[in-house]
Amino acid sequence: MSSDLGMPSRPTAGPDSPVPAGPSGADRRPGSGLRSRFTDLQEDLRRADASLTRLLGQWESGPGEDSDGLVTIRSRREEQARRLNELEYGARSSLLVFQSGSNTVAPVPTTLLGDAGRREDEPDALRYDGNPEAAYRVVVDRAFLSEPAALRALDERLAAGHDVRVVDQPLIKLVVADGETALVQLEPGRSMELRAPLALLAVELFESVWRRSRPYLREDGDLSPMDRRILQLMLSGLTDAATANQLGTSPRTVQRRVRALMDLTSVTSRVQLGWYAMRNNWV
Questions:
Q1: Are both 258 and 167 inside the same structural domain?
Q2: Looking at residue 48, what is its pLDDT?
Q3: Which of 63, 84, 91, 256 has a CA positioned 20 to 30 A from the CA of residue 19?
């Protein structure tokens, strides 16, 4: 599902600033603190995702609607795409969205604004121009950032005023409209629609992830847009080759710019560069 998860701000500090000693009295290196924070985040997201999946599993008996009218299983791609579109453009005030990779319901290239290359098998009358009535909050993961045209799609979201954040852990695909109806993808060929009060499960998961995510491309500071994108993709775990492919450049150029950023910040590793970038609100 593709209609189509920063860190809290901290006082500015360089990589050479004193680091408080831990309980044992040993200095805590910036790299170890960043790894610990990422490990905690990964565990929090794993628990939240597992909790929602476990709860939803109680209603996975098969296609159709449950007796209380709270859950509907949608199994056909065309049906999922149409319902996803209805939820997005029927929203009155808010849309909460998780975007991940391997989108088969609405692939990223087909959702770009002004893109005329629609697939022939797409349901009729689907819109991709954004709902002007709704405030979008969107979280994307590493798998999404690896998709073709992902960066262009996110740039269009930012231009449209959408609030976009990033997490490094895999996301389930979901959209929540007005906090009342949620569409959650259980597996590539099957989604579950939840109505209130069950939709609150999806809202709680989204808010938990949102609090622990980081903004996509901050605009403040003196960093160039290219360097911001390189740092964002590096922090998300993409290789230099994958980053270069997304940015339309060469791996050697990516490596050169990362090296220049390391020299600028006086750090000796990419882990320290990531720590510095996050502490100084570069990403």
A1: no
A2: 63
A3: 256
